Amino acid sequence: MRWTRSARAALTVLLGLGLLLPDRPAPPAPAAYVEAYPLIAARLRAAGPPYEGWAAAGRRFLVFDPHGDGLAVEVLGDLATADRIAVLVPGVGSTLRDFDRGLGGVARRAPARQGAELYEALHARTPDARVAVLVWLGYHPPGGVTTAAGPTAARRGADALLAQLRVLAARRPDATVTLVGHSYGALVVGLAARRSPAGVTDVVTLGGVGVGVDRAGDLARVRIWAAESPTDWIRRVPEVRLPGLGHGVRPGDPAFGARPLPTAGVTGHDGYLAPGSATTAAVASVVLTGTTERAVAP
Fold this sequence. Notes:
298 residues; alpha/beta; eight-stranded mixed beta sheet; 7 helices; globular; disordered N terminus
């Protein structure tokens, strides 16, 4: 790979900043399964607004921790009976504070709203499907671009995600699981997929910065899908991998070899699961069938 002078300079700055910034603490292990619902509901009520309102609305969580940047794993659908499960992992800057309202108050950037859009798309395609979506903020994403230059947070997130996946595999051994990662979340799901239970069949990346390998064939046991909008700034991130810096070839780069997903209706980096986008419908199809319904175009 040939680097421009400006790319080399930018990488040097990022490396220096990344080494100077402290790592965030690792998140606690996730709660086991649906038995956690009443316990987590009590924690929501004790935390006060807005979280007590989540409990009053009957929302169900496997994980909730309001301390620091916070953690939350919300369940949409009936996890106890689902035979198709999607796990949605958000990326840089995601915190509990923005779980519902979105980063900067932008609704389309809210993990909870993105998960709801995917869940609605699943039922729109197959109304009687037994599906569940986990909106998985079960790790502490990097707080900004400089700390996102390294894989430390993703490795910790992958460990926590694997703990959740192994519990799911023990309780729902016949369920098919699709991991969906946005931006830095793609790296989390890619690292987790290497050691995941057999029920994990697909990895979907949405504006993904990387998945821990440089070729789709290096994760041969799972299918890798990628959506990357022509207007997504992620395309400008240098595709390098050095010790502690960079994430290699983006899954949205044709050279990576992922199966492409359509991006019609997607604008920028945060619109992949926006209402009405072609990507949302395509991801729902992958979750339900392991394929897309029609030939895709970029």
